[in-house]
Amino acid sequence: MAQAIAQEELLGKAYDFRLIRRLWQFIRPYKRLFLISMLVLPLQQAFGLAQPYLMKIGIDQYIAGKDLWGLQTVMLLFLGALIGETVAIFAQYYLSMVVAQRCLADLRVAIFSHVQKLPMSYFDRNPVGRLVTRMTTDVDVLQEMFSSGVMTLVADFTMVIWIVGIMFYLDVELALVSLGLIPPMAFAINFFRVKARQTYRLIRERIARINAYLGEAISGMSVIQLFAREEKTFHEFEVLNADHRDAYHLSNLYEAALYSMVEAAGAVSVGLLLWYGGGEVLQGIIGIGTLVAFKEYIHRFFVPLREFSQKYAVMQSAMASAERIFQLLDTPVDIQSPRNAQVPKPFRGEVVFDDVWFHYQSGDPVLKGVSFRIEPGEKVALVGATGSGKTTTIKLLNRFYDIGQGSIKVSGLDVRQWDLRALRQHVGVVLQDVFLFAGDVRANLALGDPSIPLERIERAAQLANADSFICALSDGYHGHVRERGSNFSAGQRQLLSLARVLVYQPEILVMDEATSSVDTETEALIQDALEKVMRNRTCLLIAHRLSTIRNADRIIVLHHGEVREVGSHAQLMEKKGIYHRLYQLQYEREQLKFATPETALKVNA
Amino acid sequence: MGRLSRYIWRYWRSYLVGGLCLLGTATLVMWIPWWIREAVRVIEHGGPMRDVTYYAVLIIAAAVVQGVVRAYSRALIFNAGRTVEYDLRNDLFAHLQKLPLSFYHNQRTGDLMSRVINDISAVRIMLGPGVLNFVNAPLYYVYAVALMLSMDVRMTLAALAPFPLLMYVAAKFRGRIMKSSLQVQQQMSVLSSHVQENLSGMHVVKAYAQEQFQAQQFIGLNKDYEVKSLEMAKMRGIVNPIMQGINGLTVLIVIWYGGVRVMRGDLLVADIVAFIAYLNVLAWPTAAFGWMLSLVERGRAAMRRLEEILETTPAIANEPPPQITFSLKQGIEFRDVSFTHERQRNGHATLEGIDFKLPVGRSVGLVGRVGSGKSTVAQLVPRLFDVSTGAVLMDGQDIRKLSLHELRKMIGYVPQEPFLFSTSLKNNLAFGRDACSMEEVARAVQIAKLDRDVEIFSHGLDTIVGERGVTLSGGQKQRATLARALIMDPPVLILDDCLSSVDAQTEAEILHELRAILKNKTCLIISHRISAVKEVDEILVLDEGQIIERGNHDQLVRLGGVYAELYQQQRLSEELEQI
């Protein structure tokens, strides 16, 4: 189960330079800051590494020489180095976090803006949750990379070199003896590191399986319960869970061995240092202070070694996240304004469909050569049974999808040559399910645009008959709208969506009338508002109301993706064709308020 | 924390042995500076070399032994943490399976998932690294301070003088960091709900060309997040270097003050060396102290949240003593059933006065508009929900008195929303059975008219259907779920408008095939198509949760009510299809 999802979690290899190069694109705007933060590192290291050396001088020259003033001078220098180191560590961390936060904020915006441009077909295929994860969790993992000091890996390495250099400078023989353990240690560390990396990969694979399984079990819990398969499912889960535990037990063993080995090696080195260095002190070659300094340097030498495996793990998951993020960023934006986008002026407002073919899945055309023309100011009702292609037709008009063949012209220009933003400002599409955003009423009517004055919004609401219930809210136009507008009735939501149209005043209104039933009083309000909304604009409506088709200048009947009948209500009724039957089916019984098969299908689909 | 201590108690052996090993490690770690002191003392006094070698060998031996014991204790304690994680995850999963659907309706899958994943991991970290450091830190402190005091009291006091400052800094910043990280988390959830909503309302955003505007709003929220994160980073960034700096300060004090006393001749350089060594040992537990406390805090909070889930009692559970075996002899009966959902959402209608009998071998059809309560009636039979008043009876027995497992085993329920697991088609079809023959699968596939589709699939029955069955069409998914129920071969079959995405002709063919099977089954059929219920023994017409008409097809048509109306419409739309 859920192999595909598990696979997704496994993308990415650590130190993938292609990914690092792309990440660098986001760091680049802050490269000066980044550079400074990197330049602070050697400073920080110099302050740190000076301390043992000052200890040596203090002990060997001044304590041994009983020079109090000298000791005090050295100790003041030591204090200076200490303060310098403290400040440098803070500066380094803070500066790199500034860079991290800024470039990751940019990255989030880049993802968000890119997602805004993706065509509707992308959202049909990809669950919202996954896209949210890209912008939140995955970017957070990248932040972890900055804050855990992965960026300083190179600096860690140079510090190790520095330490070795200083030790050799102080005493070559002693350096050789106390670092004698390093080559075999390096082998052993590498052995465990490779092992740890292998188990780490195993672990990631297994945790991804567990999570995928868990997610699926939760979404499909009703099936599991209905089929009484709890035991079987639990058993499968337990196996995955045990695999994961075992992988971790192994990894813990490696990790513990690695950690303890580094610790032990440090202590053994001190033993060797004492033994050989003690001899040298006794022979008068070096002072005790040198021993002390050596011990300090050994101590500092092992710190980066100990942290390495941890940083490696962070790096690996960061790369996996980066890979997923860039994959999303690389998703092509199929529908966008062409290079020399146009906006026809003056805007005349006619709509022409010319032999339009369209399919969602190849081989299954939804529209088969649809042609019609709507004159400016004309009100046209689109009528047809479920699956006849009505909704698709209106979604094509503002380029939610691009057609396969033929052309759609708005104001004489093919929609694919329009400036997309301008097109959508001129063509207002109102879909059936009214979507309200969490926030306040005003933001919902203006869609969050604060430059739209409140008066305009209030006027729109008044015209749409929404003013009275908005004012009845405790905060009026600042009244709270819950997620998806759940604190408004279906009728109120429809009125709000009509008010929204009036705020934006598109020249062409394309609308799929809501089917949800409302009480007669609200129905009257909606019809009244609708009439006002339709006044003085070109309208194409998928009609669900009797009044709407009665008021339409013309009716276009779609059937199985083709235009079959065109004419006024009276003409078409007389013809006794498809429209006549549709009328009987969908409109005549409106008063009965009993579900037509039409609406039943809508909800199930 | 009863539950947590139970888990820990289960592995007390690991924790005990691990703890003893930690004690051993700490002892050896603490003796090393002591021997360093002895060795340096010998060196200071000019020999003999033999003694120096002796201490060096002691140190090396202690280092090696310490390394081995340390590795063992770490592995032991971390593994215990992982084992508890394993147990906890199993228990949670088992418990989740017992929770009723109403629980899942009030939770988003993503929220539940992240709670389970993050909280379990927080508990694990508390029980692994948390426990280890919790034992280690006091052990190191007590040892080191005692040994330092035994060397020189004044020197110890001088060296530890900055510690109160350290405690103060740690305490002060810990509170601030906690507060700050809470703000960051809150801002993150603001940010992600903005994204969530923007994506759900994408069609509105696009229709009104509001992409740039939405992006601007996002940039604003994102900026807030950036600022808050930086605020936190600043505080985090201050604490660590200060801790480290204070530790360096103690070393400075030791050398300075110690140096003066060495000059005066009442202390040896060896003592200074030993003091520095002890302070080095203390550096890590000191730096990690705040971190450790936050681990425990986070772990406890996580455990509380998990307990919330674990203590949610399954509203629908076996009432003891459940009757173990059961076979349907008379039939199912709804006796004056009413049902009110706690939250009037998710399309669950209220039912009132639902009263009908479904004798063995017969079938009942349910029709009515969307939201009339058809599905809810069906869901009461396998106890996806329990009735509010009245009762659903099987052979006169209240189904709440039956074993839930046996009850559900007896019912093949085909839901409206097809859900398939992301495994192979065959595994999906055989989901309800421990083992089943290829013939049984083939037969069910044929009845559900899935055979032609399977032929086209590249891997036939072994085709992986993808997450939630994305690679299949809506109709294919529905037919697959029907086949899945048929393979179970249950005595009771409930079809909850399960062929809505299948075209009318295929549905007719499927219904035709089904008829033969339905003869010896007790069947409840819900459909928006009259054709599906036309031939059942009794049809119930529901509206607003009540039965408004009942009878067989001919009776209802003759009645000339809602059903007849519906039938008329159906005929019209069929005619329309033909044009």
The percentage of residues in β strands of chain B lies in 5-15%
What general form of chain B does the structure show?
elongated
Described by the principal axes of the CA atoms, the overall outline of chain A is elongated
How do the strands of the widest beta sheet of chain A line up side by side? 6-9-10-3-11-12
Point out poorly predicted stretches of chain A: 1-14, 591-605
Biggest interface between protein chains, with counts per chain? A-B, 157 and 157 residues
Mean pLDDT of chain A: 83
Question: How are helices and strands ordered from N to C of chain B?
Answer: HHHHHHHHHHEEEHEEHEHHHHEHEHEEHH
What is the topology, as strand order, of the major beta sheet of chain B?
6-7-8-3-9-10
Oligomer: heterodimer
Mean pLDDT over all positions of chain B:
84
Total count of strands of chain B: 10
How does this model look, in words?
The complex is a heterodimer of chains A (605) and B (579). In chain A, 64% of the residues lie in helices and 10% in strands. Chain A contains 24 helices and twelve strands. In chain A, α4 (68-117) runs antiparallel to α7. The two termini of chain A are 26 Å apart. The relative contact order of chain A is 0.08. With 579 residues, chain B is α/β, with parallel strands linked by helices. In chain B, 66% of the residues lie in helices and 10% in strands. In chain B, α2 (12-44) runs antiparallel to α10 (269-310) and α19 crosses α20. Classes of the chains: A alpha/beta (605), B alpha/beta (579).
